[in-house]
From TrEMBL:
Subunit structure, interactors included: Homodimer.
Domain (Aminotransferase class I/classII large): residue spans on this chain: 37-360
GO biological process: L-histidine biosynthetic process
Cofactor(s) annotated in UniProt: pyridoxal 5'-phosphate
Residues bearing the modification N6-(pyridoxal phosphate)lysine: K228
Enzyme class per UniProt: transferase
Cited SUPFAM superfamilies: PLP-dependent transferases
Organism: Psychrobacter sanguinis
The protein's name in its UniProt record: Histidinol-phosphate aminotransferase
Listed pathway(s): Amino-acid biosynthesis; L-histidine biosynthesis; L-histidine from 5-phospho-alpha-D-ribose 1-diphosphate: step 7/9
Length: 367
């Protein structure tokens, strides 16, 4: 047994963990490649921005920045509860949905427990298992999406299985499970195993809303974010819906004031403007079809997506990605997911998407 030092982590698995790799920032690309006109289509942000009511709500809070936010998040919880037809006692607020995923794992998973997740699902699920010194069980994907029968088998045959993560629509592949498939899965999962439905992209596929499961199953947690369709990625705010007893446990572990005053006000305003969300959905839907048609014309394979991004096979993704970066276009390579031939590309505005396709076409022809 090696001797401990000041840098010895709590669990050996932490030493094998790679830090989360976010996409290149616009500022970083400008510095590194000396390009001024940068197009970022890597982080699944909303190219339309946010509702104008959000801007107004933020402005109204600027004189209160010296004050702590409401630690209980009363107004935002009430707005979320009303919108989702649940009780406010079922709502937990987070500093983005990623904060909530971490909070759920830290609250319910010990180092002797196991976390089940799918191959090609959000990489943070595997990271959380390592951070907690828990066992991570990755279930092989089926057509780049979740194989629920195989995941159920893993749950039933993994001692101390405690948590199952399901991203729906899935990131980074964009695949979607039907509500019937998910309900059938949850009905067969032992009641002591928590099923976490990561619905970060639910606004792009409203049919993937599984809120109704909370009425029939106490072991379901639904996690959502204001970072995608609502356009509040820079403010970091998300929420979880669960049984009140689960929410109570999460609240005991949650960091105080984990959602800022500005973020709470902005999220209330964003949630109240569903006309904006309908506009976002409509434009994304049309532009998704256009982009996929262009991929077909270029002879590129892609996975049908139900979110605001599409995963496309470009062959030598590393070289293609580098060439795009040098031309000021940021997309997301999927090597870390075990998909070295694939890029994940956010759907942008019509102008963004035209530039993307033109640049990608020229790049493919030149390599």
């Amino acid at each position: 047994m090696s001797q401990k030092t000041f840098a010895t982590p709590a669990y050996a698995s932490i030493a094998t963990l790679s830090a989360y790799q976010s996409s290149r920032s616009v500022e970083e690309l400008k510095r590194e490649y000396e390009v001024n006109d940068v197009l970022k289509l890597a982080s699944n942000e909303n190219p339309l921005g946010c509702s104008p009511y959000v801007t107004l709500a933020i402005t109204e809070q600027l004189g209160q920045l010296a004050r702590y936010p409401d630690g209980k998040g009363h107004d935002l919880k009430q707005a979320i509860a009303y919108f989702n037809e649940v009780h406010s006692k079922q709502v937990t607020l987070g500093n983005g949905s990623n904060d909530l995923l971490d909070l759920i794992a830290r609250t319910f998973v010990g180092h002797e427990d196991a976390i089940i997740y799918s191959e090609y699902a959000f990489i943070v699920y595997a990271m959380l298992a390592k951070i907690l010194g828990a066992k991570g069980v990755e279930v092989p994907a089926k057509r780049y999406g979740h194989d629920l029968p195989a995941m159920l088998d893993a749950v039933q045959h993994t001692p101390n299985a405690r948590l199952v993560f399901i991203a729906n629509p899935n990131n980074p592949t964009g695949t979607l499970l039907s509500s019937e498939e998910i309900r059938d899965f949850v009905a067969q999962v032992p009641s002591h195993v928590l099923v976490v439905l990561d619905e970060a992209y639910v606004e792009y596929s409203p049919e993937s809303n599984n809120r109704a499961l909370l009425e029939d199953f106490d072991n379901v947690i639904i996690v959502r974010t204001f970072s995608k369709a609502y356009g509040l990625a820079g403010l970091r705010v998300g929420y979880a819906l669960s049984h009140p007893e689960v929410a109570t446990m999460l609240d005991r572990v949650r960091q105080p004031f984990n959602v800022s005053l500005v973020a709470q006000s902005a999220a209330v305003a964003a949630l109240g403007d569903q006309d904006f969300i309908a506009k976002v959905h409509k434009i994304n839907d049309g532009q998704m079809r256009w982009i996929c048609k262009q991929f077909d014309a270029l002879g590129l394979g892609f996975v049908k997506s139900y979110a605001n991004f599409v995963m496309v096979n470009v062959g030598d993704a590393q070289s293609i990605n580098q060439a795009l970066l040098e031309q000021g276009v940021i997309v997301y390579p999927l090597t870390a997911y075990g998909l070295p031939e694939w890029l994940r590309i956010t759907v942008g505005t019509p102008e963004d998407n035209t530039r993307l396709i033109d640049t990608l076409r020229d790049t493919l022809q030149s390599l």
